[in-house]
Structure formats: structure tokens, C-alpha cells
Automatic annotation (TrEMBL):
GO cellular component: chloroplast; ribonucleoprotein complex
Organismal lineage: Eukaryota, Viridiplantae, Streptophyta, Embryophyta, Tracheophyta
GO biological process: Group II intron splicing; mRNA processing
InterPro entries xref list: CRS1/CFM2/CFM3, RNA-binding_CRM, YhbY-like_sf
A GO molecular function held by the record: mRNA binding
Localization annotation: Plastid, Chloroplast
Predominant place of localization: plastid
Protein name in the entry: CRM domain-containing protein
CRM domain sequence ranges: 51-151
Length: 164
């Protein structure tokens, strides 16, 4: 009788654990199906397609960017709203914008380049070493439209010193 009591309690514990596992599996399946539905919506949306450029265009835009005398200086504060706004202001009149950064290492420059590409919506053409530091060249894209938020800031001045 004494030996049977621990076995019975072990069986109860096992049944409770199995019940909990069934509930966890059901919740996981529900989350998985919901995530798959959301992924199909994301893949179907036309806005998610990134614009690409060919190698010939990349070489051409790189040469144009390196010859440009007009450039934006990326200061010690790094990427902030003023830099993005100035990029868009340059893109009003030109297809390519050239940024110069004085960072020393290539890894930091590549990180900054990726962040700028994401925040500005432009296409990174090239990262080149120049005597002043590194040159980042961005193309605005074939179907470029000036951002609405920037239009509002030009009409009513906003504070562009924010670093996100």
C-alpha cells in the first residue's frame, strides 16, 4: 500500500504535465498560424519591394558622386534628423547625394551607411576612402517622392536636433 501511493502521485503529476503540454502546443500552433497569415499579407503588399539598381547604374552613380563638389558633412553626433532632412533637400535637385564622414574604421562606417539607407529610403551606391575620411554615396531612387513629414517641417520649422 505504501509503495502504491508514490506511484499514484507520480501518475497524477505526469497527467498534469501532459495536459499542460497539450495546451502549450495548441497555443503555439495558433500563434504559428496567425504569424503565417500576417507574413502572407506582408509579402503581398507592393510597398515592401525595395528598389534595386544595376551594376552599370551603380558604377555611373559612383562616378557622378565622386566628382560632386557639393557634399554633406556627417559630424561627430552621427545620424540625426538634420542629416536625413539635408539628404532629402539635396535630392530635390540632384539624384545623388554625397556624405563625408571622418570615422576611422570601416565597420563603423558600414553601420552608419546601413542606418542612413534605412532612415532616408535611399539606395547606398558606394563607400569610398577619400582624404577627408570616408565618402558615402546615396541614390534617391527612380520613383522618389519628397516625404510628407519633411514638407510639414519646411512649412513650420521643427527641431532637427533629435537623434533617434
Amino acid at each position: 500500500m505504501m509503495k502504491e501511493a508514490p506511484e499514484v502521485s507520480n501518475v497524477r503529476i505526469m497527467k498534469k504535465m501532459e495536459g499542460k503540454l497539450v495546451v502549450i502546443h495548441e497555443e503555439a500552433d495558433a500563434k504559428k498560424s496567425r504569424a503565417e497569415k500576417l507574413l502572407t499579407k506582408i509579402d503581398a503588399s507592393p510597398d515592401n519591394r525595395r528598389e534595386t539598381i544595376t551594376d552599370e547604374e551603380r558604377v555611373m552613380f559612383r562616378m557622378i558622386g565622386l566628382k560632386m563638389k557639393v557634399y554633406l558633412q556627417l559630424g561627430t553626433r552621427g545620424v540625426f534628423d538634420g542629416v536625413i532632412e539635408n539628404m532629402h533637400l539635396h535630392w530635390r535637385h540632384r539624384e545623388v547625394v554625397k556624405l563625408i564622414t571622418r570615422e576611422k574604421t570601416v565597420a563603423i562606417v558600414e553601420e552608419i551607411a546601413g542606418l542612413l539607407e534605412y532612415k532616408s529610403g535611399g539606395i547606398l551606391v558606394a563607400i569610398d576612402r577619400v582624404p577627408k575620411g570616408f565618402s558615402l554615396i546615396y541614390y534617391r531612387g527612380k520613383s522618389y517622392r519628397w516625404p510628407i513629414a519633411l514638407r510639414l517641417c519646411v512649412q513650420h520649422p521643427c527641431n532637427n536636433m533629435w537623434k533617434e
